[in-house]
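chain below, 316 aa
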Amino acid sequence: MRSNDSAIATPPIAVTAPEPTPAAGPAAPRPARASGSLLAALGVAAFSLTFPATAWALEGMGAWTVVTLRGVLAAALAGGCLAACRVRVPERRHWAGLAVVAGGVVLGFPLLTTLALKTSTTSHAAVVIGLLPLATAACSVLRTGSRPSRTFWIAALVGAAAVLAFAVQQSGGAPGTGDLYLFAALLVCAAGYAEGGRLARHMPGWQVIGWALLLALPVTLPGAVWALSAEPPHLTGHAVAGLLWLAAGSTFLGMVVWYRGMAAIGVSRASQLQLAQPLLTLVWSVVLLGERLPPAAPLTAVAVLGCIVVTQRART
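prediction:
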């Protein structure tokens, strides 16, 4: 008698090749990268006017007035947009990140740079803030886990070294008070940029800065009331124009396209586009403020600008 076991056919075992482990993130399509780079570049162009606009605003207002009023006006603009679009309140898990954006971008950077510009020229401040791309890339590595290539870091460090050499040379071998404000400003701003770029992957960039502005309103609104009484403004055309640009251009609209660009091409890559910001600000300081540039300023800015090509081509 034949065994029943032999009548049972053993089904073949399908062997499936393991799926490849994805990299840190899928590479963005070329059109998406191009549009993301363009949006980030528009943000840089808007930010390049921040220091000249601040200098104009300081002609008729005190430092605390400038900082708090720009936050209040930008919050009113953002709040109107959020209300008109009926945007839902962000999830609880995003509020800590929004607080970092508010503290770094809405409060810390405007305050520290405004105080610095009381003793530093816009051209000097612009080149010192050229360290911001390196600081932002470092914060991005810590916060998002991105891993730029060695070539990327070499180019970023070369640009940072050029900026530091300029700052030390202009300050007579030791950082001045304005430089200390500027270095602190770039650290808090880098944290806000990196966190905002991360959040922009979960919500539109304009909502990131919009909610951050509203989150800072309990500080900026009472601060503006106090500042207006403590520092009575003497409004001029320059002062009003400078304040309006700081609120609408630098604090809200510029941040909208900036965060959207970072979400598209990555925080590290987008941050290096800001290497062009010192050169643009130097041009504005001559055209709008009539400043005379130290010989080392344009040379340093051009050297830093040259690093953009390398960082944008480097693997991230």
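The radius of gyration is 24 Å. Residues 237-265 form the longest helix (29 residues).
thats it, cya
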